Amino acid sequence: MITLENVVKSYPNGVGAINGISLHIDRGEFVFIVGDSGSGKSTLIKLLLKELEPTEGTIRVNGVLLNRMKKRNIPKYRRKIGCVFQDFRLLKDRNVYENVAFAQRVIVTPTKEIKKNVPAMLSLVGLAEKYKSFPRQLSGGEQQRVALARALVNSPDILLADEPTGNLDPKTSREIMKLLEEINARGTTVLVVTHDQDIVNTLKKRVIRMQKGIITGDEKESGYIG
Ligand code: ADP
Ligand code: ADP
């Protein structure tokens, strides 16, 4: 599903953010990516979204070589990858329903489909009753649920979560992680960048450890510190 071969990414100012990474993630895996601030985790996510180009090496996602992808095909590619972030990134002037529906409207989904899919996604994340609420009327955990519903409504193959619990209390964090596990159990490949030691230690998933732009650990059913 995701294969990196000898990937290097240096920023124009000469900073080597990724210094030679080879990695394979199978369809349906649940993977944590951990590492200190500055170890290259966000750069890795941006490379997978083709927001950045590798300086060296190749990246393949779903059999597609990203290096060779035409510019005009990038939006379509990104739609098959759901993303959530620490700061939720919801549209503040749209209600919950519209925040999720928006993801479908941009790919010109028939209204009939949207009216079926959006409530289904909101039920999945446990927010069916709050469809008329605006982001400011929701707790952090609820806002992240909306972000998850939006990320999933177009049935992505992969869900990338960059510090999804960074702004949430421990109990809410565990609930969001449980949801990510459910989403994974339904077949979506899930990659989670996190600093949350408790969660990584509890869930016992594959853990990829990064340090200074290289992979220093990659273990199945692991914890935060090996
Ligand atoms: P992490 O997500 O693990 O905190 P990043 O991928 O953000 O790590 O950063 C990796 C390295 O690349 C750091 O040394 C950081 O300062 C540097 N870096 C990140 N973004 C840029 C940029 N746009 N320009 C120059 N250097 C950058
Ligand atoms: P449009 O005609 O602009 O596509 P809709 O008729 O789909 O608008 O929806 C108008 C508003 O009604 C939406 O902003 C949403 O809040 C609400 N809405 C419509 N259908 C549903 C539904 N099935 N579940 C929850 N809210 C809905």
From TrEMBL:
Keywords annotated in UniProt: ATP-binding, Cell cycle, Cell division, Cell membrane, Membrane, Nucleotide-binding
ABC transporter domain segment(s): 2-225
GO CC aspect terms: plasma membrane
Membrane spanning residue stretches: none
Keyword Glycoprotein on entry: no
Membrane topology, record value: Peripheral membrane protein
Main location: membrane
Molecular function terms from GO: ATP binding; ATP hydrolysis activity; transmembrane transporter activity
An annotated GO BP: cell division
Segments forming a coiled coil: none
InterPro entries, per the entry: AAA+_ATPase (IPR003593), ABC_transporter-like_ATP-bd (IPR003439), ABC_transporter-like_CS (IPR017871), ABC_transpr_LolD-like (IPR015854), Cell_div_FtsE (IPR005286), P-loop_NTPase (IPR027417), Sigma_54_int_dom_ATP-bd_1 (IPR025662)
Keyword Protease in record: no
Pfam families given in the database record: ABC_tran
Cellular compartments annotated: Cell membrane
Family: Belongs to the ABC transporter superfamily.
Biological function: Part of the ABC transporter FtsEX involved in cellular division.
Summary of subunit composition and partner proteins: Homodimer. Forms a membrane-associated complex with FtsX.
Descriptive protein name: Cell division ATP-binding protein FtsE
Organism listed in the record: Hominiventricola filiformis
